[in-house]
Design goal:
Blueprint lengths: L1 H9 L2 H22 L8 H15 L7 H33 L2 H10 L6 H37 L9 H33 L6 H20 L2 H9 L2
Helix pairs in contact: 2-7, 2-8, 3-7, 4-6, 6-7, 7-8
C-alpha cells in the first residue's frame, strides 16, 4: 500500500513520459515483428516457413534422430534462459528487500539522493520484464515438448492419412513455441533497457531507444535476414 500511496509523489512527469514510451515501444515492436508489412517480413515471420518445411521434410527420413536432436537443442535453449531468469528474479527480489547497495552506487553517479521507494519501483519494472520472460520460456519449453510427442506420433507409413495432418499440427505447435521464445527474448532485451532508469528518465529513454533499434535491426535489416531472403523463391 505504501508503494501505491506514494507513487504519484515519487514519479516525476519525465519518469511517467519515459515509462509510457517504454510500454508503447514494447507493445509496438512485438506487434510489428509478429505482423510485419507484407513487403518487409521479419526474421521471425520468415522462419515460420522453414519450421513448416522441417516437419514435412522429416516425413521423408526413415531415421528421425536428426530431427529429435534438433528439437532437443531448442528445448535446452529455452531451459537455459528460464533458469537464468529465475536466478535474475531471485537477485532482483533480494535488492527490492534491501536497496542499500544500489543507493550507494546511485550516490556515486548522482549527487542527489534517490529515495529507496523510487529504487524499488525501478527494480520492479525490471523484474516485471524478467518474470514475463520466464513465463514465456517455460511455456515455450513445454510446447517444444508437445511438438516432440507429436513428431513421434507421426506414422512411418507415408500412405497413412494421418501423416500430413499430424505433420502440419506439429509444425504449428513448433511455430507457437518459437513465438513464445522470441517474446521471452524481447522481454529480456527490454529488461536490460529498463535498467537505464536507474540513471534517471533520460537513461530509460536511451535504454528503450537502444534496445528497440537493436531488435528491429536484427529482425528487418540484419545479414542473417538477407541470407534467409535469398532463399525465398
Amino acid at each position: 500500500m505504501e508503494l501505491l500511496d506514494n507513487l504519484p509523489l515519487t514519479l516525476t512527469a519525465a519518469d511517467v513520459a519515459a515509462l509510457a514510451l517504454l510500454v508503447v515501444t514494447w507493445l509496438g515492436v512485438g506487434r510489428l515483428i509478429e505482423h510485419p508489412p507484407r513487403g518487409r517480413p521479419s526474421v521471425s515471420f520468415l522462419m515460420k516457413r522453414y519450421r513448416r518445411d522441417w516437419m514435412f521434410e522429416m516425413l521423408t527420413r526413415d531415421n528421425r534422430i536428426f530431427d529429435g536432436n534438433t528439437l532437443t537443442g531448442l528445448r535446452e535453449g529455452t531451459a537455459f534462459f528460464a533458469s537464468a531468469c529465475m536466478i535474475a528474479m531471485g537477485g532482483g527480489l533480494a535488492l527490492v528487500g534491501n536497496t542499500e547497495p544500489l543507493t550507494g552506487i546511485a550516490r556515486e553517479l548522482d549527487a542527489a539522493a534517490i529515495p529507496a521507494l523510487l529504487l524499488k519501483i525501478k527494480l520492479l519494472l525490471i523484474l516485471g520484464f524478467v518474470a514475463n520472460a520466464f513465463l514465456k520460456f517455460v511455456w515455450s519449453h513445454r510446447l517444444f515438448g508437445y511438438c516432440a510427442i507429436m513428431m513421434a506420433a507421426i506414422p512411418n507409413d507415408p500412405d497413412d492419412r494421418r501423416v500430413a495432418v499430424r505433420a502440419g499440427a506439429a509444425a504449428e505447435i513448433n511455430i507457437n513455441a518459437a513465438r513464445n521464445f522470441n517474446i521471452g527474448l524481447r522481454a529480456v532485451y527490454f529488461a536490460i533497457g529498463s535498467a537505464g532508469w536507474l540513471l534517471g528518465p533520460l537513461g530509460l529513454v536511451a535504454g528503450t531507444v537502444l534496445v528497440t533499434s537493436m531488435t528491429l535491426r536484427r529482425e528487418f535489416t540484419s545479414a542473417s535476414r538477407q541470407a534467409i531472403m535469398d532463399d525465398v523463391p
